[in-house]
């Protein structure tokens, strides 16, 4: 039994955790949920020894333990696997070395490497988890889910008693998530406790026994999942009843403004036909890896078109690069917010005025005043929570960063807005605000393409859906006439000819 | 769409893994068909001897590359080491032993100073060692009073001839042979073996790679990153100084600029080494093969009367091809 008692952690100006009590039983899969900024990550970092100071105490089986660095946490059997798996891996070394890393650094006495032992032990861990990974392979060549498995293998080797998985399924495909859950169950049966952080509540209900909810740094409670529903958990997270998170968008759908016919691209997109009408939200539904991101990028000139045409207002346009796409009136909010959507080390105003800086210049010199005015307007319009327009984007929460990523396209007129998984890793509250923003865009007579692997979103938000599978559009559906099951059917390859 | 792509990827992987080896073999095959003397023992020895200095300096650079650094001062350290050795023997008559030990110590210390600027002052590796290169050249030229140091050199101000000579034991490092194999080649192979064993079979070598590949993860796992980075630069300085001693002995003089021509070749050899066998990280075997590839190419081209002043074109092409393999792979 792991007990965290009265944990308080303050950062300059913020009380991130306020007297949190969090208990995890033996061989239990325990979900930790909360909106972004609720303190989940901070709490887990305290547990993993990332911070050397905090108030409160941590007990394992009633014994008070001291955790002020990662090494001590590991010694107590607490291991964390972060969402960004690459931060903990050594890409140019083998799987075996990555699994055995802690042994090599801390326990290996001999100067000379005992390769036989290292490979043998790593292989044992890999086999115990039923994985099909060659331990001699360099980690840099592995897929994301395999990398995650390597880290879990490392945790098992360390004889972890408490394994923290921080949003492990966010980047995984359905198939890969399933595999992860199998392994998590297996570890549970071997007596390991797993703390599972996730924004996907359906997963939480599928694999966890208990859930603890944090809100604004405070502990709301621990609940038996058998006695809860998704709605009730969301209510605890938000502190209020969840209204329908999808706004009612009443707007007239007019003629076609954007059209792609038989479009194929170098990035694997194959003969895609798609139309967007003014005032319409068109969904691109599909599982991870179906080609939604690729299609978005192809439309936006980020990959080479090998065949087919793109038309805007009945005129053929050529997007040979992203600059042309923007000039033609296309806007893209990319999937990778942090690396593609915003410049994290720049201020909010720099980010917002980035795409059409010309507007804020006088004779090629930037006008500070115009930039500030425009930025304040957007900050207000899209509801970015920040003390100042000069704030670095890196200091904002995920949801607010995404609003910056969207906001930069609102300062000028674009015809078609492409959103690629805009709500990935964002809390429920911010999600609703982003939906509202998208609603405003279409009510101005623009077209929106909304790519998502969350079918609930597709169903709640769009007018029409294209289902993607393996780089192709396999089905077009009217949103009002379809359901999650049908979307899943087509996006898993059901109904497609012989492929 | 899938099958076609897969084939091209497999072909690329093959190229990535064995491309460099293939180019080396093709080069050897080509020259041995068209040149009668190419595969003779004497010529092969010649190639090895010609790459021994480049090989040693590139091994020094390899050490810094493993920790994700780059020691551009290695060639200047080599030149300085040769000057110190020459001054100790020719001007100060201090004998062979100090003339070998002191330059090596200086090399290690310079490596430590490099590390200090990189770690404590937070200067990028490239710029810190570039500055060090200038600084060392200046110090060295001052130390040698502006001219090269050699046997029986006239001293300034009509003070007559230099009193000492480069000892035979020292010159043996550069000019001697053991069983017909030149000593520089033997020294290069010994150092290469040392680097190979260190990087692949000691835990410290693996720590170097961990630091070079993901410094943050290495740090959080409990590796004293600064300490090992410093050691890497000291080892680089050590090997560069050894290269300098061999160089000085081979030329029979001490001159700091003697090391300069080897810098770019050595950097190139170390980077070509990344791509050998698709290892994708700096390594001893790859570095030596990289040096040999360039040596072989140049040797063959010279024998075919390729103008020496155009050699850099060949070096440049080889380097850019090898880098393309490594970085294109990383991108995908």
TrEMBL record, chain A:
ABC transporter domain sequence ranges: 2-241, 251-495
Signal peptide boundaries: none
CDD domains named in the record: ABC_Carb_Monos_I (cd03216), ABC_Carb_Monos_II (cd03215)
GO molecular function terms noted in the UniProt entry: ATP binding; ATP hydrolysis activity
Gene3D superfamilies: P-loop containing nucleotide triphosphate hydrolases
Primary location recorded for the protein, binned into one broad class: membrane
Domain of life: Bacteria
Location(s) in or outside the cell: Cell membrane
Keyword annotations of the record: ATP-binding, Cell membrane, Membrane, Nucleotide-binding, Repeat, Translocase, Transport
SUPFAM superfamilies: P-loop containing nucleoside triphosphate hydrolases (SSF52540)
InterPro entries: AAA+_ATPase, ABC_carbohydrate_import_ATPase, ABC_transporter-like_ATP-bd, ABC_transporter-like_CS, P-loop_NTPase
Membrane-topology annotation of the record: Peripheral membrane protein
Keyword Amino-acid biosynthesis attached: no
Cellular component GO terms, alphabetical: plasma membrane
Protein name: Monosaccharide ABC transporter ATP-binding protein (CUT2 family)
Organism for this UniProt entry: Halanaerobium saccharolyticum
From TrEMBL, chain B:
Protein name: Monosaccharide ABC transporter membrane protein (CUT2 family)
Lineage, top ranks: Bacteria, Bacillati, Bacillota, Clostridia, Halanaerobiales
Transmembrane regions listed in the UniProt entry: 12-35, 47-67, 74-92, 98-119, 126-153, 178-199, 231-249, 261-279, 284-302, 308-328
Membrane topology according to the record: Multi-pass membrane protein
Principal cellular location given in the protein's record: membrane
Keyword Membrane carried by entry: yes
InterPro entries named in the record: ABC_transp_permease
Subcellular location as annotated: Cell membrane
CC terms in the record's Gene Ontology section: plasma membrane
Coiled coil: none
